[in-house]
Amino acid sequence: MAAEKKNIMTYAGLKKLEEELHDLKVNRRQEVAQKIKEAREQGDLSENAEYDAAKDEQRDIEARIEELEKILKNAEVIDEDEVGVDSINVGCLVTLYDMEYAEEIEFKLVGSTEANSLKGFISNESPLGRALIGHKRGDAIEVESPAGMVQYKIIEIQRAN
After folding, report:
1. How does residue 153 score in pLDDT terms, banded at 50, 70 and 90?
2. Pairing of strands 121-123, 103-110
3. pTM for the complete prediction?
4. d(Cα 109, Cα 112) in Å, to the nearest integer?
5. What is the rounded CA–CA span in Å between residue 82 and residue 91?
């Protein structure tokens, strides 16, 4: 059997997932169980939309709990205080200069479970993340995107905390 993939994440990302798991197990399970109980009390379950909806919600919650437990079981937490700033790695705050658009962009490089480009969290498994790992300040890199090759220059590498 192949070894399961390690889920690289920051401590903040780990805490967020642990809190979500706790909320699902403690609060959401009880809420859905109550909804199912109330729907059962209405009688005939074969045509009870509330019962069907509650059972669907219960299935979704259980699937998410299973997913979170798997992610957390294989979590590898990066200590952001120990992240070096001489080269790019997970946990770094990176400032790049986009050569085509002549603008600076800044983001935090995180594990794939924490990635959220709208909040400035780029996955280490994304094309840009993979291209950046190990590079130093001043390096120029090329990244293949759907629109073609994009060139960046690394302006700054900082600890993200």
Report:
1. very high
2. parallel
3. 0.74
4. 9
5. 9
